[in-house]
Amino acid sequence: MPDAVFLSGDRVDLRPIEEDDLEFLQREINDPRVWRAIGGSRPINRAQEREFFENVVCDDDSVNLLIVADSTPVGTIGFNSIEWEPQRAEIGYWIAPEHHRHGYGTDATERVVRYGFDQLGLHKIEARVFEFNAASRRLLESVGFTEEGVHRDEVFIDGEYQDTYWYGLLEDEWRSQTE
Hints:
This protein is an alpha+beta fold. It has helices at 22-29, 32-35, 46-57, 104-118, 134-143, 171-178, and strands at 7-8, 13-16, 63-69, 72-83, 88-95, 124-130, 146-157, 160-170. The model has no long low-confidence stretch (mean pLDDT 90).
C-alpha cells in the first residue's frame, strides 16, 4: 500500500485513498457496524466501491483520506459537500470496528479540522450524527463541536426512523480553544 502521508497525527497518519485501498474500503463499508452508523442501507460491491472512488474520492470538491495506524488502514475521514463561497464543509468519518476505542477517530478529526481551518480557509465545519451513535457525538464534542439542532425522524435505519443531530464548529471557536 502507498505510504504518502498527507497529515500526521499523534496516533494516526492520514493519506490519500488509493486504488489499492478499495478492498479494505469495500470490506469495512459492508460491516453493519459501519454502514449503519453512516446511514447506509445497501450492500456495496467491488464495482460500486470503484465508482465511489472515481466519482467521490477523486472529485475536486471533497477531501477524502485514509486513516492509518502503524501502516494499517483503520478508517476514513474527509470533507464532503465543501461550499467554497460560504466557506463551509461537512466532515464525515468512520473507523473499522476492530479499531474502535483507540483514539484514532479523535486524532484524525483534530487533524482534519485543523487542515480545514488553516489550509482550506473554512469558516465553519459541520457534522451530522444519528441519535443511536453516542460515541460519535462524544467525539465531536471532545473536539469542540456544538450541537446545533435535531432533524426528527430524518433517516430510516434498522426498521425505524432515527433523528439526526447536527453539530457545528466555527473557526473562531476552534482557535480560542486551541490557543
